[in-house]
Every structure is written in C-alpha cells, then in structure tokens.
Amino acid sequence: xxxxxRWNPDDWARLHSDVPTPRVRVAAVPGSGEDDxxxxxxxxxxxxxxxxxxxxxxxxxxxxxxxxxDVPCAVVLLVLxxxxxxxxxxxxxxxxxxxxxxxxxxxxxxxxxxHRWRDVLDADRALLHGRDRPLDVTILPVATTLAAxxxxxxxxxxxxxxxxxxxxxxxxxxxxxx
Length: 178
Hints:
Elements: H1 2-7, H2 9-15, E1 23-28, H3 34-43, E2 54-57, E3 75-81, H4 88-97, E4 103-109, H5 117-129, E5 137-142, H6 144-153, H7 155-165, H8 167-177
Helix pairs in contact: 3-6, 6-7
C-alpha cells in the first residue's frame, strides 16, 4: 500500500476513495474508429483530480451479450464514421446503448480523410434530433489521426494539433457530461 501510494498517488487515491470513477459507454458499429478514439481520449485522461474517465466498450450493442449492461453509465459516446450517413444499424446501436443513459455524445470520426464530412454531420444531426425518443444529443467532429500526431509531436505544436483535431473538445464535453 505504501509503495503504491508513493509511486502512483492518483490510483492509490482512486482505490481508497468512495467516489467511483465516472464511466462513459462507448458504442459503435465495428470499423467506425472507436479503438483509435478511445486511445486518444484515454491519453488525455490526466489524473483523478483533473477528470479521469473510464471508457467501457459496448460490445452488447453489436452482439447478444449483456455483460456491459451491468456497468452503470449515465453517458454514452456513440462513434459515427464520416464516410457514410448514419442509418438503421447506427440507430439500433444507439437505442441499445442509450437505455438508462441521461446523455448521448456522438463523435464523427475520420473528418481528416473525407472532404464531405460536413454533409454527413448535417444529415446525422437531423436524423438524431428528429427521432421519436428525445435524447440530449451532441455531435462533435474529430480527427483521431491528427490527435495521435499531435500527441506524438508534443509541445506547443502538438497541443495545437490536438485542439484542431477536436479531441480536446470531445474530452471536455464528456468530462462535463459525467
């Protein structure tokens, strides 16, 4: 216990704290870039005092298992791909993952690779806001490859790339939501 407290005080404090780490359920159609997005968001995690968030992968929205459903999450991060408009599959993933969630934040990934991502963003926003079941939904465009490049670069230039990629805005939105 003393060694952990000395070498990793943030995790020691989390271990002995009554306050649980806030969790975000990540839901996506396979291939939409959720792995890279979670990697970049986790890299921005910081310490327990500055807003560490645990990201829980929602495999139950794709498969018929309920393992992830047992983990309470008030916020859902729905990952959408900028190469195609959201459709029935994405809406089914959203419906499954958002049960019991108070807030849905969507990340439109791949905006650095697809020049018509703004058209996709507008169509997805109209689709999600025009649904029967009202949800508090926010959609943010993110370029995960740009965020990774900025993280690798470091310094002021890396920070500017991270800001331009949209990953910082997404992380702040999720931190505020949880």
